[in-house]
Amino acid sequence: MFFRRKPSQTFCSKSSHVSPTKRSIIDKENQKINSTAKVFDGDAKTSQNSKAKDVAGASTSGVSSHKTFPKINPRRLIQESAERLYSSQLKSIDRDVDKDQLIGLRESQLQYLLSDELAAYMFREHTRKLVEENISSALDVIESRTGPIMGATQVVQELEKIIAFDNKLTLLSNHPEPARFALGVGPVSLLGGDYEGDKRINDLKLVYKSYVAESYSSGIIEKSKRVSMNHLKNIFGLGKLEAESIELEVTSGLYRLRLAEAVASGALDAADSKAAFLVNLCQQLNFNPDKAVEVHTGVCSFGDKYKLTPITLLGGIC
Asked: What confidence tens digit (pLDDT) does each residue in 59-72 have?
């Protein structure tokens, strides 16, 4: 049986679970729809009055009257259908999206008569969910306590997919003919999603820390890795101090380990200049010399034995 919608229902009912941003867009669409509805209502009055007279005449003559259906707004139905159709098209967009797909998506949006604002929002929401899948996968690996080598590799793979996807969207957004592409193409944002703000910030920090630790796994931070770390920090919405604190936690542990190895192997004692040896170690790890001195004081009276201070670490001779 076919049921028609009640006239009071609007495009995307407020009872559905939508973000404040999408709610604002939908409210604007409903305002447009309601303004046009008055025109349809006015045009429909004459027809309804005529039908009422026909029904009354039929009743007096013993003929059964037909049930009348509630009024519907054609534009509202078009908008709802457009959103469903466009949502279906978005399912074909993955991390390997190319310009031909974006052109086809734009053509579909125009064909469906979906508003530009809603189309842009839906595309950004779709790409954000793809990134959230990678974050969740990385988090699952960390929390599952998979073997250190395999687990770290899987985490890095998931996070590098995010970086590559964001780079691709940024590149596509700078295309010479962006008007031909689907609206909303650009850098990924986690705003409005599962990992927005303070709700899951600790999870994001944990994932970021894992990436930083793996970036330092060789003992020397590569320039490309530092660029990727900064890229990931921006996608996650981490502040400068938050990111620096996480990196310091990782590098402090690595410096302590490398220092213990240098002492145990005799490499430090054999060095022509112990200060130069340690300054080089700090540079390799991008580790603050002042923080290095704090580590020295806590490792078997290391600082007392070698008479190392911030001055000697910054270039003095032991």
From this structure: 555 545 556 666 66
* Gyration radius of the chain over CA positions: 31
Q: Check: CB of residue 195 under 8 Å from CB of residue 174.
A: no
What angle is formed at CA 211 by the lines to CA 221 and CA 243, rounded to 5 degrees? Answer: 80
Longest dimension (CA), the chain: 117
Q: What number is the average pLDDT over the span 41-65?
A: 51
| Encoded tokens for 306 | 């070698």
Sign (positive or negative) of CA dihedral 155, 141, 286, 166:
positive
> CA–CA separation, 293 vs 275, rounded Å?
11
Q: ∠ CA(66), CA(72), CA(73), 5° rounding?
A: 155
Measured between alpha carbons, how far is 108 from 85 in angstroms, rounded to an integer? 9
Mean pLDDT along residues 45-71: 54
Q: Give the whole-angstrom CA distance, residue 303 versus residue 259.
A: 12
The answer to whether the pTM exceeds 0.70 is yes
Q: Which residues contact 259 (CB under 8 A, 6 or more apart)?
A: 268, 278, 281, 295, 296, 299, 302
CA 124 to centroid of chain Cα atoms: 9
Question: What is the distance between the alpha carbons of residues 219 and 57, in angstroms, rounded to a whole number?
Answer: 93
Cα separation of 212 and 215, whole Å?
A: 5
Tell me: the pLDDT tens digits for 189-198? 999 999 987 8
CA 110, distance to chain mean position in Å, is: 26
Q: How many residues does the chain have?
A: 318
